[in-house]
Design goal:
The protein is an alpha/beta fold. Helix content is about 45%, strand content about 20%.
Length: about 300
């Protein structure tokens, strides 16, 4: 499948997504700074989240009082404060086009799909929380756009059912653990191999919420061809997703290493390289000379 000018396939380069999500804390300026960092670090796309809080916040949580950097407010008011609207996304759309970087979003409800369609986003993400939302899946399928299906907090049966709903669509299956941050012992990166066996016609990727970047590189070694990581300006910033995000230095190293991965892995054919030939000539000649001297000493 193709997003922007990038082809995503099982044999192609890794497609790198920098998830901004709601780490912008409702600030368009912070969002732009993170877009800049993603572009500088060589990510292929930035991703946001879009939801209607009145629909997505449980009734039992709406009136709960929450302490925030902006003072006390109800949980519903807080979630509304974190959401970008038409004005902000119009500016994001223009900014990303000027920067020549793809942007899209996770969608949490049907009105949010209609909202984002105004910007003709090239693809959509189905968040782990809505993998079982058949109505949402069918609505996205009807758009005939590439999709990313995140599989955190899901059983194999739930994953299979979602894939059956989406069949005949173009979509990437993302292995994921939905804890923030995810514990090392719960990442289960070997499941990437299982997904490749079970769904050979689909590209398999990885959406990581762990600390650091090493596990994400292992996921890529195991064949994840789409890599998504939350990004932040500072992990100490306010917000539940900040601790599971990577800052500029981590973004830069991760992107650099993902780009080098295929070079490091090679083609699996054993050969003596040109540089090795020079070393071989030097060291093997020394070995022959030493062997000859030892033979003369024993004679």
């Amino acid at each position: 499948m193709i997003i922007g000018d990038k082809e995503i396939s099982r044999n192609g380069p890794i497609f790198k997504i920098a998830e901004i999500g709601i780490n912008h804390n409702g600030s368009l300026e912070i969002a732009k700074q993170m877009i800049d960092l993603a572009k500088i670090c060589g990510f292929d796309a930035v991703k946001f989240q879009k939801k209607v809080p009145e629909l997505c916040v449980p009734e039992s949580e709406k009136d709960r009082i929450k302490e925030t950097p902006w003072g006390e407010m109800t949980y519903l008011e807080y979630k509304k404060k974190m959401e970008f609207g038409d004005k902000q996304f119009s500016e994001i759309d223009k900014y990303c086009k000027d920067k020549d970087i793809v942007w899209f979003a996770s969608v949490w409800d049907l009105p949010s799909i209609d909202f984002l369609e105004k910007f003709d986003t090239p693809c959509y993400k189905i968040p782990s929380a809505h993998l079982t939302n058949k109505e949402l899946l069918l609505k996205l399928k009807s758009l005939e756009k590439p999709l990313f299906l995140s599989t955190g907090m899901s059983t194999e049966n739930e994953i299979e059912q979602a894939i059956n709903v989406l069949e005949e669509s173009e979509f990437v299956i993302l292995h994921c653990n939905s804890s923030y941050p995810a514990k090392d012992e719960e990442l289960n990166l070997n499941y990437i191999k299982k997904l490749q066996i079970d769904y050979p016609d689909h590209v398999i990727g990885y959406s990581g919420h762990e600390l650091g970047i090493s596990a994400t590189l292992v996921a890529a070694v195991f064949g994840a061809k789409v890599i998504e990581r939350h990004i932040t300006l500072d992990r100490a910033m306010w917000g539940t997703d900040q601790a599971a995000s990577i800052e500029f230095s981590g973004m830069r190293r991760l992107s650099r290493d993902l780009d080098k991965l295929n070079i490091w892995l090679g083609d699996g054919i054993k050969r003596v390289t040109e540089d090795e030939l020079k070393v071989k000539k030097k060291l093997r000649n020394v070995e022959t000379l030493l062997s000859s001297k030892q033979s003369n000493l024993t004679n």
